[in-house]
UniProtKB/TrEMBL annotation:
The keyword Ribonucleoprotein is annotated on this UniProt entry: no
Name under which the protein is recorded: Rieske (2Fe-2S) protein
Keywords, comma-separated and alphabetical: 2Fe-2S, Iron, Iron-sulfur, Metal-binding
All residue ranges annotated as the Rieske domain in the record: 24-119
Annotated Pfam families: Rieske
Matches recorded under Gene3D superfamilies: Rieske [2Fe-2S] iron-sulphur domain
PANTHER family the record matches: 3-PHENYLPROPIONATE_CINNAMIC ACID DIOXYGENASE FERREDOXIN SUBUNIT, FERREDOXIN-RELATED
């Protein structure tokens, strides 16, 4: 008898590996997320996230600027980047990259589930 897809995946160990590689937790409700062109700090499980919306798309990146630890969520959004309020390094909200300074912030996956906004902290 042929195995179902889920049984075959579970027996292969792939499903288990995928489950242990993610850590989806509630970040806030969708209604609490920032308006377009704005950013806000959200603390979740000991991590401070910069939650920002640019061109209608939400993004979550580490809130701590890798230059001198400026609070990114207190910066501004410009050309799809969150710009640090202290020395104006700009980090792309899709990739986390700041090519001009050869620097990077972590970008976290987001998804909506019902009225909640979830983040993968893995
Ligand atoms: S602390 Fe962010 S640019 Fe300097």
């Amino acid at each position: 008898m042929p195995l179902s897809f889920h049984t075959a995946v579970a027996q292969s160990g792939i499903l288990e590996a995928e489950e242990t590689m993610s850590n989806w937790v509630k970040l806030c409700t969708a209604a609490q997320s920032p308006a377009d062109g704005h950013a806000q700090e959200v603390d979740v499980q000991g991590v401070t996230i910069c939650l920002a919306r640019a061109d209608g798309t939400l993004a979550a990146v580490d809130n701590v600027c890798p230059h001198r630890a400026g609070p990114l969520a207190e910066g501004w959004i410009e050309d799809g980047k969150i710009v640090c309020p202290w020395h104006a390094w700009g980090f792309d909200l899709k990739t986390g990259a700041c090519p001009e300074e050869h620097s990077q912030v972590k970008v976290y996956p987001l998804r909506e589930e019902g009225t909640d906004l979830l983040i993968d902290l893995a």
